[in-house]
User: Fold these one by one.
Assistant:
Number 1:
Amino acid sequence: MQSPEQAAAYAAQKAQSTFAQDNYARLTRSMWMNYITNFVPIENDLIEYATSPDTVTNAVAKAREGVAGAFQAQQGATQRRLFGLGANLDPDEAQSLQRSSAISNSLADVNAANMASRQTRQRQQSILGNPAPGLGM
C-alpha cells in the first residue's frame, strides 16, 4: 500500500505526463474547428460550383447578356455618329447596315456562348481534379 505522499507524487507525475497529450488534443480540436469554420464553407461552394449544371447555363446567359449589351451600345454609337455627321441613310443602306449588324451580333452571341460553356466546363473539371480538363470535351 502507498503512503499519502507517494500517492500525491504519483498523481502529480501522472498529471505532468499527460500535459503534452492534453495540449496536443486541445491544439488538434482548435485546428479542426478552424477548418470547419473557415474552409468547409469554401469547399462546399466549390463543390456546388463544380457539380451544378446551372453553373454552365448561368455563364452562357451572362455571356449572351454581355454581347447583347455591347451590340446595343454599338448601334447607339453608330446612330449618334451618323446624326453628328448629318448623314441620312437611304432604305437600302439602312437595311444593309441592319443585316450586317444582325449577322455580326449572331456570330458574336454564338461564339460567346460556346467560349463561356467550354471555359466553365474546363474550370469545373479542374476543380474536380481532372488533370487534363480540355481533353475529351
Number 2:
Amino acid sequence: MFITNKKVIDSNELTKLLQDPILVRIVSIIGNTSLSILELLEYNLTRKDINYALSSGVIVIDKSSSSSQSHLDYPDVSLDDNNILVSGDYYFYNFLSSKVKLTDLGIYILETIKAENRTIDNEIPKEIEGPQEQYF
C-alpha cells in the first residue's frame, strides 16, 4: 500500500502503475530533475501521455518553478500582436513552459525501476560448461 497526498494506492494498483510502459518511460525521462512539458513532448510523448501521468499522480506541475512566470523571463521581448506572450496563446505557451517533477509516487516508481535494473545487472548468467581440453 502506498499513500499519496490525494489517495491510498493498494498493491494491485501500484503493480499496474509499475508495469505501465508510458508511466515507466516518463518517470525514467524525468528522473530526479524537472522538465518542461515542451521538453517531454520532444521525447515523443503525447499530450495524452502527459495528462495520464498527471492524473495518475506520478508527476505534478512544479509551481515553485520560475517558468510559471515566463513573461518575466523575456523582458526585452517587444509586446506586439504577433508576440505569443500577448496573443491568445499566452496560456498555452505558459502551459508548455511549465515544469513537471515526480511526486512521491513517481519517485517510488523510479527507485523501484533502478532497484530492478541493479538486480538484473548483478545476476551472473550461468554458462553451460562443455568438455574442456586439458593440455599436459
Number 3:
Amino acid sequence: MKKKLLIFVIPLCIFLVIGVVFIILLFTNNIYTNVKSFLSPNKEYKIVIKSNGTRWSFGEENIKIYAYKNSLKGFFVKKIYETTISNDGKILNDTNFKIDWESNIAYLTLSGEEQIDEVLEIKFNDIIIINKKNLN
C-alpha cells in the first residue's frame, strides 16, 4: 500500500513544483519597472521608460516607452512603444538614453553595448505619434 502511495505522490509533487516554477517565471517576466523618465522643458509632456529586466542569457531587454501629456488628460491620451535594447546583460542606466526636445517634439536615443543607436521621434499633439528615425 505504501509503495502504491509513493508511486502516486512523488510524481504529483514533481508536477506541482514544475507548475509553480513555470507560473512564477510566466508572471515575473511580464512585470515592468520604471528605468528612466523625462519631462519636457515646459513641463507639459512626459516620457517614461519601463523595463522587465535583463535576461539571464545576456540577451535583449524588453522596454516600453510611455509618452503622454503631463496632466490629467495625459492619463487617457498616451502612446506606448515597445522595443528592445541589447546591453550585454547589464542593467540599463542613464547612459542608455539621451533626449533632445524641440517644442512639442522629443528625439529619444536608445543606446546599448551590442546595438546601433535607435532614435525615436515623439510628436505631442492631440494624438501622440512615435516614429523610428533612420540613422544614415
